[in-house]
Amino acid sequence: MTVTAPRNSLTIVDNRTGKSYEVPIEYGSINTMELRKAKVSEEDFGLLGYDPGYLNTASCKSRITYIDGDKGILRYRGYPIEQLAEKSTFLETAYLLIKGELPDKERLAVWTYNIRHNTMTHANMTKFMDGFRYDAHPMGILVGTIGALSTFYPDAKDISNEESRKLQVRRMIGKIPTLAAMSFRHSMGFPYVLPDDDLSYSGNFLSMMFKMTELHYKPNPVLEKALDVLFILHADHEQNCSASAVRAVGSSGVDPFSAIAAGCAALYGPLHGGANEAVIQMLIKIGSLDKVPEFIKSVKAGEGRLMGFGHRVYKNYDPRAKIIKDIAFQVFEETGRNPMLDIALELERIALEDDYFVSRKLYPNVDFYSGLIYQAMGFPLDMFPVLFAIGRVPGWLSQWIEQVKDGEQKISRPRQIYLGQEKRDYIPMEQRPKNRLDEEKFGICRL
Ligand code: CMC
């Protein structure tokens, strides 16, 4: 008996034509361009893959972040998130994400110096900031001001120049806490605070946020450390919505500030970085422990979502949520217990036992406890997604750099399945529909 060696390929039979196609398998995936060979005629375009929301489509090959959603594993450049959270600092982790390896002492010192010396913004930025209404959402301000950085640094357009890329990286990581704090102080009507070089990255951010009349702001070391760890936990998460936005916009060859403004806009949404704010809104709405069962019932009836629960990739406890839960207790030792913690713990307890959540593999994600910590630290609700954005900047930058250097990448341009009207002739004004019944006949869509 002859045994044929297994081939690393997929054989597809097109039942419309009876033809079969052998498609190579590489890294457990097929190149969907191979499907285009399956045609019913010479003029046929060929088969397309249909995948709204990219549930099963890899958009790139990446060496930055590894996630195993079933096992609850997250690693940056191979290092487990638990070890980085315990032993690293945010700036060191940023170096790791962007450069691929942990820095030695000297490299870390130079990196830190370079970022610290890029924390100031152009004086005109304050005028730009002042143009926003007093009640503008800080995340909207952040999207606008990051986009505006491209006008202050036109040299950032030179994306194929490695030295230019390095400079924009320092500028972006250095300036994001400054812009974030300015957006908060603008909404409060407080004067802006200049960066303080003597403080750590997170300590300086706390100073720019909360410094009042004191000469030197001294951050609480527990809160400073907690914020640093929260930034590490948010630093990258492979091809999520905002990283994909950065890559899609960056694929047009635009400067990194414009691409990162797009990522920031994607993060603003309540299903992504806006979820930590939505968690607190939800806890406020629930109000007390005795209302928790009723709320869970309404979620199960499809009347809303349990915010801070569920994830596209994690079908297990989000490893970041575990670390954040521990930090929450350390922070509450300093600030006093957030009164909504008990409601959150009860929601988690019930959800982890309830078949609705268990069968759908819905577990707490990174946003479930982070909002409680931010609130206890004194950040207003609308600053929560901004804090997420500060942490995510090194991830966005590393994804952008990887893409710029990847010869296989092309401008992002998905296909569509067209289900609209066939060709038809222009209708003169007097013959167009006048009422709803006619509109339906003419197939007019409502917004
Ligand atoms: N509460 C109640 N039901 C949920 C939830 C939730 N939070 N999340 C998903 N489901 C249900 C959903 O209704 C659906 O049920 P059915 O099969 O009966 O229709 C099923 O679970 C699958 O949901 P899905 O919307 O198809 O899942 P998805 O992978 O497209 O969405 C998600 C992932 C994160 C958008 C979603 O779980 C969600 O909306 N969660 C709440 C918002 C949130 O916490 N977002 C932060 C995500 S972590 C931070 C980040 O990386 O951005």
Descriptive labels:
49% helix; three-stranded antiparallel β-sheet; Cytochrome p450-Terp, domain 2; binds carboxymethyl coenzyme *A; mainly alpha; 18 helices; globular; Citrate Synthase, domain 1; 447 residues; 3 domains; two-stranded antiparallel sheet
Average residue-wise pLDDT: 94
State the secondary-structure class.
mainly alpha
Q: What is the helical fraction, as a range of percent?
A: 40-55%
Distance between the termini: 65 Å
* Proportion in β-strands: under 5%
Query: Largest beta sheet: what is the strand line-up?
Result: 3-4-5
When the domains are counted, the total is 3
Any low-confidence stretches, pLDDT <50, length ≥5? none
- Helical run tally: 18
Name the CATH architecture of the largest domain.
Orthogonal Bundle
Q: Largest sheet, described in full? A: 3 strands, antiparallel
Small molecules bound = carboxymethyl coenzyme *A
Shape: globular
**Which CATH class of the largest domain is shown?**
Mainly Alpha
Annotation, overall tally of beta strands:
5
What name goes with the CATH superfamily of the largest domain? Citrate Synthase, domain 1
CATH topology of the largest domain: Citrate Synthase, domain 1
Q: What is the H/E string?
A: EEEEEHHHHHHHHHHHHHHHHHH
Rg from C-alpha positions? Answer: 25 Å
